[in-house]
Specification:
The protein contains eleven helices and no strands. By secondary structure, the protein is an all-alpha fold.
Amino acid sequence: MKVIAVLRNPRVAFGVLVLVVLIVAAAGATRLSPHDPLEQDLLNSFQHPGASDGDQSHPLGTDSLGRDILSRLIFGARPALIVAFVAALFAGLIGTALGLAAGYFGGRLDAAISRLVDIWMSFPSVLLCIVLAAVLGAGLHTVIIAIVVIDWTRFCRVVRAETMLQKSLDYVASAVTIGLGPGRILASEILPNVAPLLLTLFTLEMGIAIVVEAILSFVGLSVSSGVPTWGGIIQEGRLYVNQAWWLMAAPMACIIVAVLGLNALGDGLREAIDPVKAR
């Protein structure tokens, strides 16, 4: 019943719908795609979405090589979702661990971690991702590493501030009084109260990771050119934007809807889970 109540939140419902669509598209791309995303049909190149002439089995049209746009978008959900989840997970684990330690223990440890975060965040994030991807070489693992290396600071900073706030509350003092150690306090007392904020950060980071993956795909630093990606489709479509606007519009719409859905899901779940906001 509580799950149903949470899903009644319009933002949660929208976010869950977007996430489910992404998962289904990524997992069932082979069966859901009406065509092979790499299959070329030069006789049907630049076919308009919903065109009544030519091959009518391309609801979102075709590109310069006659490849089906819908099929390429469905297969493009795979690298986007893999990068989003894995990169957000590892960035969250690293940033949360360092943020909890800095916020709870303070002192020199806090100063060292905070200084490291300040130095790390002084570099332009997207530019640093491109440099790392160029150094490590193209590949999905490279994109994930680049995002983790850059965005762990986002989790660390927010978790550190929230941990310092939680540490000043009475329940932490009570836990210390009854003899609980720092590890037990962090794991069983502070972390559950930081979890709603972490959930919001995680979904936000997934959206950011999708955008970064699209940027790196656009400049050719993500997966190989033979694998359809949303950024790669945009890069190919920009060459023909005056005669085939849908080549860029379709993948851009996918990115925008995915990011908006993940952000809405995080905000809605935080309101439902956070005991302060739920009152």
